[in-house]
Amino acid sequence: MIHALHGNFGQPSDWLPALPRHLPARTWPLWEIRRRHPSARSLEGFARWFNQQVAALPADGPRLLAGYSLGGRLALHILQQQPSLWDGALLLSVHPGLSTDLLRAARLAHDVTWQQRCLALPWPHLLAAWNAQPVLQSPSPPQGSTQPAPDVLPEAWRPEIASAFLDWSLGAQADLTPALASLSLPPISLLCGAADAKFTALARHLSHHLPSASLTALPACGHRLLAEAPRHIQGLLAELHR
């Protein structure tokens, strides 16, 4: 089964266009998990909780982990804690962590600002500000543009998203590369958009340190790969499932 984790300001339905229809899959609701399971509100706590939930489910073919952006960072923690549980992973636009305390402190201060915006701005203005960030701009139209647009994230999840800016901040995360490099990991496919220079460089760095990782940089794609390259993602998941 594929277990998919969405990104920040995202929701489970974001994954639906990118999942192979012939394979079993589960899309996990990060904000609902944060609300209902206090033990899962830290990065390490979420990874521990998630591995426990997946291990308790009936095995239905290979266990594949898929994560986009924030969901990809959570997936790295999941793999670090229990790599033997997983048969493969697909990580999209993923950041393995910042390398110094100074960088982490700066990122935490940045995320405190976003937390304050999340609590204070009118919801439509907040979503517009988030989507206006340069890293999220798409260099090409999304694939499958005839499909219905995903539902807008409900404002009801505002408290969980705001608190996640601190609990799941890059400023609260170590650089996971050295720890992951020391483990026996399942096959990992790293996918990035070639127009997303920052995350392409991060993916290259990570792939150089993980023997089980392969990297694909898609031309004319940016950060939002779930919308920009769903058919390519379907193919990678199908390959991992074999």
Structure described in brief:
With 242 residues, this protein is an alpha/beta fold. It has helices spanning 30-36, 43-56, 70-81, 101-120, 123-131, 158-167, 177-181, 197-209, 225-228, 230-241; strands at residues 2-5, 25-28, 64-68, 88-92, 188-193, 213-218. It has ten helices and six strands, in the order E-E-H-H-E-H-E-H-H-H-H-E-H-E-H-H.
Architecture overview:
- The protein is α/β, with parallel strands linked by helices.
- It has one domain (2-241): Rossmann fold.
- It has helices at 30-36, 43-56, 70-81, 101-120, 123-131, 158-167, 177-181, 197-209, 225-228, 230-241, and strands at residues 2-5, 25-28, 64-68, 88-92, 188-193, 213-218.
- It has a six-stranded parallel sheet, sandwiched between helices.
- Strand 5, helix 8 and strand 6 (213-218) form a beta-alpha-beta unit.
- Helix 2 (43-56) packs across helix 3 (70-81) and helix 4 runs antiparallel to helix 6.
- It is globular.
- The model is unreliable at 145-150 (pLDDT under 50).
